[in-house]
Specification:
Elements lengths: L1 H15 L5 H4 L1 E5 L5 E8 L2 E8 L4 E7 L1 E3 L4 E8 L12 H4 L1 E11 L2 E5 L8 E6 L8
Antiparallel strand pairs: 1-2, 1-9, 2-3, 3-4, 5-6, 6-7, 7-8, 8-9
C-alpha cells in the first residue's frame, strides 16, 4: 500500500512540474546548437522580440510579435522568424522569406523550459536562460 502511495505522489509531482502558464514562459530564450547565427527570443507580458545575429556580430533580424499560451499548453508566436541557421551572408534573401506563425509545445523538463521550432524532436530549440524579461515592447 505504501508503494502505491509513493508512486502516486511521484506521478503528481512529475505532472505538476510540467504545468506551464504565462508567467513561467516570460523570459529570455536562446537557440542552441547554431553554427551560423546567434538567436535570442525575449518574451514579455505584452509581446516578444527575436534578435538574430550573424557569427560576426552583425544584427540580421530584429523581429517583434505577439504571443499567447493556447488551451492545450502550447505557445503561439505570431510573425516568428524560422531560423534554420543558414548563412545570411551567402543567402541574404532568407531575411525576407522565413516568417510565419509558430505553435510549439512548451516543455518543462526538470526545471528547464524550452520550445522548439523544428520538424523533428530537439530541432530548432530555444532554452530559457533568464526569467526577468520585463521591458515594455515598442
Amino acid at each position: 500500500m505504501a508503494i502505491i502511495g509513493i508512486t502516486l505522489l511521484i506521478i503528481v509531482v512529475a505532472n505538476r512540474s510540467c504545468v506551464i502558464d504565462e508567467q513561467n514562459v516570460i523570459g529570455t530564450y536562446v537557440g542552441k546548437n547554431l553554427k551560423n547565427t546567434k538567436d535570442t527570443v525575449r518574451i514579455y507580458e505584452c509581446g516578444y522580440e527575436q534578435m538574430i545575429y550573424s557569427n560576426n556580430g552583425i544584427l540580421k533580424i530584429e523581429n517583434h510579435g505577439k504571443w499567447e499560451i493556447t488551451e492545450s499548453g502550447m505557445i503561439r508566436l505570431s510573425h516568428f522568424f524560422f531560423n534554420y541557421d543558414r548563412d545570411f551572408d551567402k543567402y541574404p534573401e532568407i531575411a525576407l522569406t522565413s516568417y510565419g506563425e509558430l505553435t510549439a509545445l512548451v516543455q518543462n523538463r526538470m526545471g528547464e523550459i524550452r520550445f522548439c521550432s523544428g520538424h523533428y524532436e530537439g530541432e530548432g530549440c530555444y532554452y530559457q536562460v533568464d526569467t526577468t524579461a520585463t521591458r515594455t515592447m515598442r
